Amino acid sequence: MIGVLGLLCYCAATVLLAPAVLMAGTWQVRRPRLALGLWHGVFASGLVAAGASLAWSVIAAVRANFSAPEAGTPWMMPTVLVLTGWISLGAVGAVAALVLQRAESILIVDRHSHGTVAALLELAAVRTTLVGRTRVSFVGVEEPLAFAAPGLNTIIISTALEEVLDPAELRAVIEHERTHLLQRHGLVKRLARLNSSCLPGVLCARRFERATNTLIELIADDRAARICGPRAVSAALAKLAVARERESMLLRAERLAARCGHDSGRRGVAAAGLAPRSNGIVRTK
Amino acid sequence: MSERRMRGELEASVMRILWDSPVPLSVRDIQGGFGAGPGPAVTTLLTVLERLRLKGQVRRGEAVAGVRYYSAAESESGIVSRAMLNALTESSDRAAALMNFAGDLGEDDVDLLRRALGRRGRAEGNLGE
Predict the structure, then answer these.
(1) What percent of chain A has pLDDT over 90?
(2) Angle at Cα B87 formed by Cα B85 and Cα B92, nearest 5°?
(3) Do residues B128 and A267 lie in contact, with contact meaning Cβ atoms separated by under 8 Å?
(4) Beta strand spans in chain A (E)
(5) Considering all CA atoms of chain A, what is the largest pairwise distance in Å, rounded to the nearest integer?
(6) Cα A143–B112–A172 angle (5° rounding)?
(7) Given an 8 Å threshold on Cβ–Cβ distance, is B97 in contact with A266?
(8) A277 and B82: CB-CB below 8 Å?
(9) Which of chain B's residues have a Cβ under 8 Å away from the Cβ of A240?
(10) Rounded mean pLDDT, A48-55
(11) Residues ≥6 apart with Cβ < 8 Å to A280
(12) Chain A residues within an 8 Å CB radius of B128
């Protein structure tokens, strides 16, 4: 019984304390891989502890049920154990049903998205090329954007983005998206999304999902910077930050620019020939 | 049939006629594109074309011998592609299935990046610094 309580306490600690510890300071921005590993490690260990506590309580209940009763044996403890075992089994069933139902809705939305991407490629793809084993399709769209569709193992780049970036910057964008595909970030993101949708309104789950989404972007930026150089990634981010009016992208650009000791993030903005907004603040969408 | 639906169908028919034509068309040409039978009145078509022009879907050329010619501002596939992209990028559920280069960072994440870069607050997120 004490063991079960200990495991449950550990679960509670992962939910209540881990976010505070993992979100303290700004080290995650410098070490995004470590931060993502810790977040998911804590999450996995919390799940294992919850599963072990449930299994432990069921085993204790079965043992209490099968042990031969003796005259004068206290009845309280075995009854509590059996009741706890049944409650645990009920909890396992309820959690399994919830997870399956939420996973199904996520998979349906994902399938729709990938269906739309496939239709978009059929309609608007102007050319397709291979980078490593990854398909890169250019679509004739007037908005500068780039994204990876993990279900199709494809990167989609708009022709408008191609016009805005120079070849080195474009390659940096492709490497950023390839990182998502190669390191299976789609799966990591989906796991965090599933957890969050199973625990709606739970702050820790929301923070876990947000941290996952942010850290995988920083990890992809870092890998692209290792392959193409920080300057190219930083400049691509800065140009798109202006086109899409996203402060987060500008900050990502400056993060890489700061690392390599130059200011290409801001220079990229200047090179784009854009004056600051009247209030001097980048609007985030 | 509601007036709004009729208007939408008329706009769609006009766009279809413009997309099917390799050259810009006058209002009379568009009226002829409705086939046998009385098509919409010229004044109705002019209203529809003006509305489409304001939406950015139709381009109006300079008058030649007193006649104005109209053409589609964007190809049919371009409009459909844009609608698909909007569906993909503007619905947070659908966008979550994709890995967007622009990222999916919330205000908390932006704050974290600001702090990591030694910025104090939103007011310092200045492009012109």
Answers:
(1) 34
(2) 115
(3) no
(4) 125-131, 134-139, 146-149, 154-158
(5) 90
(6) 40
(7) no
(8) no
(9) 101-102
(10) 85
(11) B123, B126, B127, B128
(12) 275-276, 280
Q: Looking at residue A109, what DSSP letter applies?
A: H
pLDDT at A104: 92
Contact in structure between B116 and A161 (CB atoms under 8 Å): no
- Whole-structure pTM value: 0.76
Chain A residues within an 8 Å CB radius of B80:
123
Nearest to B81 among A123, A177, A240 (CB): A123
Which tokens go with A143? 């908005």
B-chain residue closest to A280, CA distance: B126
Are B99 and A186 within 8 A, CB to CB?
A: yes
Contact A196/A209 with Cβ under 8 angstroms? yes
* pLDDT tens, residue by residue, B37-85: 777 899 999 999 999 999 888 999 888 888 899 999 887 777 778 778 7
Q: Give the minimum alpha-carbon distance from B61 to chain A in angstroms, rounded to a whole number.
A: 22
Cβ-based contacts of B112 with chain A (< 8 Å): 23, 26, 28-29, 214
The residues near A238 (Cβ < 8 Å, ≥ 6 apart) are A249, A250, A253, A264, A265, A266, A267, A268, A269, A272
Supply B48's token pair. 């529809």
CA-nearest residue of chain B to A187? Answer: B97
- The residue of chain B nearest to residue A189, with distances taken between CA atoms, is B96
The residue-averaged pLDDT of A212-233 equals: 93
Of residues A21, A40, A4, A52, the one with CA closest to residue A216: A40
Here the tokens at position B29 are: 């040409």
> Widest CA span of chain B, in angstroms?
72
- Among B84, B85, B122, select the one facing A281 at the smallest CB separation: B122
Which residue type does A77 have?
A: M
**Contact call for residues B67 and B36 (beta carbons, < 8 A):** no
Among B66, B67, B62, B74, which residue's Cα sits nearest to residue B28? B67
Residues of B in contact with A173 (CB under 8 A): 101
